[in-house]
């Protein structure tokens, strides 16, 4: 840090950067004695690397990206995961979606019109299109995700696999930064993507894509981003971290208040923030994204273990890895609770001081997840790389 009260925090232009943007713009950071500058970054890899080397004090971050180092993730990648990262706060639930090109949506509708009328849409129609293309000798369809360790990667893979599509054999997966998804779809370089708001809404409003399944339908209340810092930074600057968390807790509550919806849209629409049309942000915010209510800010152990189970399922983490230790090392509800205790009546104690049961609500067309049996869950799917 440049000074005891100076922080530089990174974010990616997505709707769920709202807690950082609102805390800065509304003066909540300043009221906590923090001089915060926000840095709009180009990609998640850049966020990770800058936090690791200290160019950023903390950042809006993909939750699985923070977990990857602690779990020994490689996934066949030459990835230097850097210093240990921790997640003392969750930033949102819901918000992402799977979108395909208009041409692919029409092909799916022709292949199985009944499936395409379902809500949410399963990938069974897509499986038929893939089989038809394979019979014709056509190249595999290409789908983009934002990062190998991301809710978006696991959401897309899960959705495909439930329809019998092997995401590592039947389609081609590529990594594309969120702001470039729509231009890649427009150029025909990809056939679909899974990304956070507002980029799905942007594709729809530009007449380029059709949303097939949103995160709120895939897993109601499912986790997504976190606020991430290095463990060393948190150790050296505990007061600054607690102050930053208090400011973002207040900002998250403000962002969830319907009375502030238009002000939030105007704030995020600024070019230095997300920089898209207000109509796209309004559509995105209407898709059940949650910043604060129902204890959304608490980084929950069972959420970390679901992410880790997906790393095991897809061969990014060894089946022998200690998932519980990784979850406990990275997800720090104790730090969130310490900040929440001093922020006043903004936080409902019943939501953040009572541990949730290990079982989570059922995901889209799948078995119920029990965090006490994460490895068994990972090995229980017919498509995946996990071994029981």
From TrEMBL:
Compartment list: Endomembrane system
A Pfam family hit: NMT1_2
Family annotation (InterPro entries): NrtA/CpmA_ABC-bd_dom (IPR044527)
Keyword Calcium part of the UniProt annotation: no
Record keywords: Cell inner membrane, Cell membrane, Membrane, Transport
Protein name: ABC transporter substrate-binding protein
Gene source species: Caulobacter hibisci
């Amino acid at each position: 840090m440049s000074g005891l009260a100076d922080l530089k925090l990174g974010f990616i232009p997505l709707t769920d950067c709202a807690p950082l943007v609102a805390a800065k713009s509304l003066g909540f950071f300043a009221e906590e004695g923090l001089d915060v500058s926000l840095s709009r970054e180009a990609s998640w890899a850049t966020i990770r690397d800058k936090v690791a080397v200290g160019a950023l004090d903390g950042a809006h971050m993909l939750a699985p990206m923070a977990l990857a180092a602690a779990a020994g993730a490689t996934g066949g990648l030459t990835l230097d995961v850097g210093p240990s990262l921790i997640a003392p706060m969750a930033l949102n639930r819901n918000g992402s979606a799977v979108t395909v090109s208009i041409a692919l949506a029409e092909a799916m509708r022709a292949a199985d019109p009944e499936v395409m009328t379902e809500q949410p849409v399963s990938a069974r129609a897509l499986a038929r299109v893939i089989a038809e293309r394979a019979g014709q000798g056509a190249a595999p369809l290409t789908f983009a995700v934002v990062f190998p360790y991301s809710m978006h990667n696991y959401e897309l893979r899960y959705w495909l696999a439930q329809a019998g599509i092997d995401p590592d054999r039947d389609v081609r997966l590529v990594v594309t930064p969120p702001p470039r998804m729509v231009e890649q779809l427009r150029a025909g370089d990809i056939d679909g993507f899974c990304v956070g708001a507002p980029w799905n809404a942007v594709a729809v409003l530009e007449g380029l894509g059709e949303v097939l399944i949103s995160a709120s339908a895939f897993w109601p209340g499912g986790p997504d981003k976190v606020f991430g810092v290095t463990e060393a930074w948190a150790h050296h600057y505990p007061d600054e971290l607690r102050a930053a968390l208090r400011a973002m807790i207040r900002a998250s509550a403000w962002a969830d208040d319907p009375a502030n919806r238009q002000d939030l849209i105007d704030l995020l629409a600024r070019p230095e923030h997300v920089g898209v049309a207000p109509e796209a942000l309004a559509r995105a915010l209407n898709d059940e994204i949650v910043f604060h209510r129902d204890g959304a800010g608490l980084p929950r152990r069972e959420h970390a273990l679901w992410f880790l189970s997906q790393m095991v399922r897809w061969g990014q983490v060894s089946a022998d890895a200690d998932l519980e230790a990784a979850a406990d090392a990275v997800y720090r509800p104790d730090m969130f609770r310490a900040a929440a205790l001093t922020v006043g009546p903004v936080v409902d104690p019943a939501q953040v001081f009572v541990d949730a049961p290990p079982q989570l609500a059922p995901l889209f067309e799948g078995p119920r997840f029990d965090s006490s049996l994460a490895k068994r869950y990972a090995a229980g799917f017919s498509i995946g790389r996990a071994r029981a």
